[in-house]
Amino acid sequence: MTTDIPGTMNAMVLTGHGGLEKLEFHQDWPTPSPVPGEALIRVGACGLNNTDVNTRSAWYSKGNTDATTGATLAGADDNDGSWGGARITFPRIQGADAVGEVVSLGDGADPALMGQRVLIDTWLRDWSDPLNLERTGYFGSECDGGFAQYAVADQRYVHPIESEFSDSELATFATSYATAENMLNRAEVSVGDTVLITGASGGVGSALIQLANRRGAKCVAMCGADKTPGVHAVGPLAVIDRSPADLRAALRDATGWDSVDVVADVVGGVLWPQLIGIISRGGRYTCAGAIAGPVVEFDLRTFYLRDLTFTGATVLPPGVFGDLVGYIERQEIRPLLAATYPLEKLREAQQAFIDKRHVGNIVAHPFD
Fold first, then answer.
1. Domain with 233 in it: what CATH number?
2. Quick one: 198 and 133 in the same domain?
């Protein structure tokens, strides 16, 4: 079952670990064909995320201790340069946050998917053991993703969506909002909880604000002073500077609180001891990133004497992505689109993403 599909397509191809020069634009890349059980999607838009940058630069390698910069990193090793700590295969088309239309189906795929507008669940699973975290992959990392005019995905990852949002707006959701929802699930955030959110101007941070608000929690956001108006518009109770000399004093000045129930962190870096220090006794810390630096000063006494719970949040359990699609369709959350770029300008788009002067997310258009 198919429509007319060209034999070649435009694609941005990652050729290896390194700087932006490792991203190569091709106008004659072979268009993928769906195998049994797969769908071929004509990509309308694909959002950027930190995994793209970190994979390209091998930031995940244990040999690297620097903040996320997108540059070639001294000490990084190709052998553990992916999010999962393994070698990635090149060439690779990155891009997890793909939105588009199903235009072809492999044998056995559900014919009802044909012509549907869809989002793609970013997490790949071994469907014989779907809860096994050791048997997972990431769309655009362990397989080709959406920085191309066409992409294939197992039909079990393809989620039809009915929404008035544009493709560009929908492409801001997948990675950021699913990551944020997973963090809040892991930290068991509920009505009345107080939550401090780092990196609040970014995709995950701004998603955390909306999703925590949706649960009835009270949010305090941290961001640079130049981004405060944009972050305020997302709806936190208060916004404080991302680099306060005294975090507790800044929190008290903004809210009257001396502590919070939960810290939802995607930043790490030198501020980390202060983040842990303002969690109330019996509180929770959840983390899904370390853009300011992965190696931190950790006082075990703060951790165990205050009965804290720490959770990492990476691989989504089955069902979380479907929940997110429901939130979008019911307009319980809204997109925060910062900018769009044609696919051939992905290097420039990724540099803008790294520079982080925006609020929300940046999206690439394969057919511009």
1. 3.40.50.720
2. no
Instruction: Domain count for the chain, please give it.
Output: 2
**17 within domain boundaries:** yes
Instruction: Give yes or no for residue 1 having a pLDDT over 60.
Output: no
Same-domain check for residues 230 and 277: yes
Same domain membership, residue 168 and residue 198: no
pLDDT tens across 314-347, in order?
999 999 999 999 999 999 999 999 999 999 999 9
* In a domain? residue 279: yes
pLDDT in tens, 167-186: 999 999 999 999 999 999 99
| Three-state SS letters, the chain | CECCCCCEEEEEEECCCCCHHHEEEEEEEECCCCCCCEEEEEEEEEECCHHHHHHHHCCCCCCCCCCCCCCCCCCCCHHHCCCCCCCCCCCECCCCEEEEEEEEECCCCCHHHCCCEEEECCEEECCCCCCCHHHEEEECCCECCCCECEEEEEHHHEEECCCCCCHHHHCCCHHHHHHHHHHHHHCCCCCCCEEEECCCCCHHHHHHHHHHHHCCCEEEEEECHHHHHHHHCCCCCEEEECCCCCHHHHHHHHHCCCCEEEEEECCEHHHHHHHHHCEEEEEEEEECCCCCECCCCCCHHHHHHCCCEEEECCCCCCCHHHHHHHHHHCCCCCCCEEEEEEHHHHHHHHHHHHHCCCCCEEEEECCC
Residue 65 lies in a domain: yes
Same domain, 116 and 250: no
Domain extent for 285: 179-312
- Per-residue pLDDT tens over the stretch 206-215: 999 999 999 9
